[in-house]
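cron nightly-structures :: item 1 of 1
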Amino acid sequence: MSRVKGGVISAKRRRNTLKRAKGYRGSRSKKERHAKEALVHAGKYAFNHRRDKKVDFRQLWIVRINASLRENGVKSYSTFMAGLKKQGVLLDRKVLATLAKDHPEVFVRIAKKD
């Protein structure tokens, strides 16, 4: 049986790795071993930060809601959210934060109703 050399496939793999690492600094975009290592780390960071982004946005919404409540002299965030839950209002924090930012008059009516 004849011997099969893997030069074409290896070159393609190398080329794709370097293509994915394009724009990285120094040898991370030029040398295969460094590029592979950089891509592994980049993948880990991307995975973790997709999760962190959800936490960051929730914190931002809470800050916006609380700021709007205090600006209108209603009450604290925690009592406001407890009151909404007790009344059965099914608006989540994202919607409430959007209302507080873009439509403050609507948000004030919701807050006063509580």
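cron nightly-structures :: done
The domain at 7-113 is CATH 1.10.1900.20 (c-terminal domain of poly(a) binding protein).
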